[in-house]
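Quick one:
INPUT:
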């Protein structure tokens, strides 16, 4: 019996992190690989408005250096063009995280930009000025440096089979779930003759996993990842926050269910133990 309990508690110690990983990995992989969620983030009506505001501020600063009329160039920054670019970038990123294919990065074309600049009294070359304006728009819409991103993904792709790695990562939630069921089955097998006692082990594992997930969520909030990203790019921080809000909602709901289920199991075990002890005391002379 002693070794049975030791093995059962060992299975509980294994089950706690496996349940926590399962709960966290399902919404995490959905947030990273869901094309629908990416499109929802990319087509959020507030994002192009914020992007236009930041682009206008930068164009005003560039106008002082290059000598063009900000009003003329502003008319070329259309909201519908930025929305379409966001959709294209969303599809491009989804192709990377789901298939490991990089492809050509979608860019803002800026139709009519050269013609408008040729009519200006510039202090710099019109082609150079047009390229600077395009880079400014691109940096706002895609704050992560394209060269660094593409080079990094290419470096990884040359050394590992990125599509297979991504497919394996997508299966990680199911893999951890299968291991969790295996650990739970071991507990049931070890305590087959003491079904009521299994409530204590299952309850402890579920409550422990719920507390682990909640702790991970609190630590992530304290790390202020959004604030860290905001130092590099305001738009990227906003998009990150919108995308991860779905992840945190699902993870916290699952943690609440685990915690409630664990507490209920421990309560039922405690109440059953008290009833059994009361029955034994009445039988004893």
């Amino acid at each position: 019996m002693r070794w049975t309990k030791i093995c059962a508690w060992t299975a509980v110690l294994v089950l706690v992190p496996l349940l926590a990983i399962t709960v966290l990995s399902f919404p995490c992989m959905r947030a990273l690989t869901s094309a629908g969620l990416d499109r929802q983030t990319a087509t959020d009506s507030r994002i192009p408005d914020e992007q236009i505001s930041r682009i206008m501020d930068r164009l005003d600063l560039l106008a002082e250096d290059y000598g063009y009329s900000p009003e003329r160039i502003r008319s070329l920054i259309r909201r519908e063009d930025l929305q379409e670019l966001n959709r294209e970038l969303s599809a491009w990123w989804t192709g990377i995280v789901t298939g490991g294919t990089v492809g050509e990065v979608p860019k803002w074309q800026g139709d009519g930009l050269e013609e408008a600049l040729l009519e200006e009294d510039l202090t710099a070359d019109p082609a150079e000025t047009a390229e600077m304006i395009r880079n400014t728009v691109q940096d706002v819409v895609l704050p992560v440096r394209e060269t660094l991103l593409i080079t990094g993904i290419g470096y990884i792709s040359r050394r590992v089979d990125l599509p297979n790695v991504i497919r394996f990562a997508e299966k990680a939630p199911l893999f951890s779930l299968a291991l969790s069921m295996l650990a739970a089955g071991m507990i049931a097998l070890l305590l087959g003759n003491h079904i009521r006692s299994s409530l204590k082990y299952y309850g402890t594992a579920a409550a422990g996993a719920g507390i682990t997930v909640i702790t991970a969520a609190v630590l992530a909030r304290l790390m202020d990842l959004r604030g860290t990203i905001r130092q590099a790019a305001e738009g990227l921080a906003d998009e990150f926050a919108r995308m991860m809000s779905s992840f945190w909602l699902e993870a916290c709901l699952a943690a609440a269910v685990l915690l409630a289920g664990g507490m209920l199991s421990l309560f039922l075990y405690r109440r059953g133990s008290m009833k059994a002890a009361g029955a034994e005391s009445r039988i004893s002379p």
